[in-house]
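Q: What structure does this chain adopt?
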Amino acid sequence: MENQTAMIKAHLDKGNSITALEALDLFKCFRLASRMHELKESGYPFMKEMVSVDSGKSVACYTKVNL
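A:
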């Protein structure tokens, strides 16, 4: 089985975005920010945007940046 970082990278490579709740639901990943840090350290291009959710709170949403 692939590790969570690889699965998240594959998800982003398909043009999808991801939030912490989606990472938990899709990949059982409790620490999305840590996985994204690993991707950043490896040189993977992505951006983080704060988006509002139904509760009125903001959450981080990550998407791949195509260079």
